[in-house]
Amino acid sequence: MGAQLRVYKRRIQAVTATKKITKAMEMIAASRIVKAQRKVAASQPYATELTRAVTAVATGSDANHPLTTEVETPTRAAVLLITSDRGLAGGYSSNAIKAAERLRERLASEGKEVDTYIVGRKGVAYYGFRERKVEDSWTGFTDNPAYSDAKRVAAPLIEAIQKETAEGGVVDELHIVFTEFVSMMTQNAVDARMLPLSLDEAAEESTRKGEILPLFEFEPSAEDVLDALLPRYVESRIYNALLQAAASEHAARRRAMKSATDNAGDLIKSLSRLANAARQAEITQEISEIVGGASALADATAGSDK
Question: How far is Cα 234 from Cα 240, in angstroms, rounded to an integer?
């Protein structure tokens, strides 16, 4: 009995230490969510106005540019997948990977070859374990991305899409898969096409908001303006996606750590009950042994008196 009680006490101590760690991680994640939300809100106006400017240029000219022109028979697509560098965030990374797999299957069914680009160690490990080809990858900044990180990620993607004009078509479409931050409790893994820009959707969005696209004159030409806007547009979209993914990662980690903390508390209660039961059984056994010994001694004393 004593050995069993010691086992329960050691397990309670171990679970208590784990509970302290998960509680601390929950509080850290909760504090980082607010900062991440502010960054998302701050980046949104720039991305919106940049998309509006590109739409204005495209609708106000007949420029043939990879930023806005649909390829009749696209044969290759690039997919940027954003996952996390660290674990302990529930199904955050796995949901994004599943969304990327669904997108990959859909593009393949349309007869397109898929080039994969990955942000985050979890995605890199997933593709590496399965020995799948990855065109490029980036790690080390998923929980706190900067605009410079978005520029690094965007550079090879911009180069790939620009080769369409110079070399006859390397990448016809750019897609991004990330986790959209909806609320503290809801984060959705989504895929979106970055290029070519859907002018109809952009125009509908402006109409829904009551905006009127102004008329512009382009100097030196609409093509040159689009060439200048292409890197900024891709970088802003990627930066906004990185920020939303970071906020989603912190929210998912907070939820996972809260669940782990609650489970640790429940386990401590269960182990405490088992330890108390073992202690009670040990006390009962000791009392029984004492009573049995006293009874045997009394019987022996009575026999000697006779």
Answer: 10
Is 75 within 8 Å of 172 (Cβ atoms)?
yes
pLDDT above 50: residue 166: no
Partners of residue 82 on adjacent β-strands: 119
Q: Write the DSSP assignment of 170-227 as a string of letters.
A: S--EEEEEEEEE-SSS-EEEEEEEEES--HHHHHHHHHHTT--PPP---SS-HHHHHH
Helix/strand/coil percent split, the chain, to 5: 65, 10, 25
What DSSP character marks residue 158?
Answer: H
* Residue 73 confidence class, pLDDT cut points 50, 70, 90: confident
> Could you count the other beta carbons within 10 Å of the beta carbon of residue 305?
5
Going by C-alpha positions, the residue among 259, 254, 241 that lies closest to residue 96 is: 241
Cα atoms in the 13 Å half-sphere on the side-chain side of 258: 12
Tokens of residue 77, six digits = 């697509």
Q: What angle do CA 169, 171, 172 make, to 5 degrees?
A: 80
Segment among 80-84, 161-165, 244-248, 296-300 with least mean pLDDT: 161-165
Look up tokens 């330890």; give the residue: 275
CA distance 174 to 77: 6
CA distance 217 to 208: 25
Angle at CA of residue 128, ends 126 and 132, nearest 5°: 100
Q: What is the pLDDT of residues 239-268, one digit of tens each?
A: 999 999 999 999 999 999 999 999 999 999
Q: What is the pLDDT of residue 304?
A: 62
User: Which strand ranges, in their side-by-side order, compose the sheet holding 136-138?
Assistant: 136-138, 113-119, 76-82, 173-181, 187-195
CA atoms within 13 A on the CB side of 166: 6
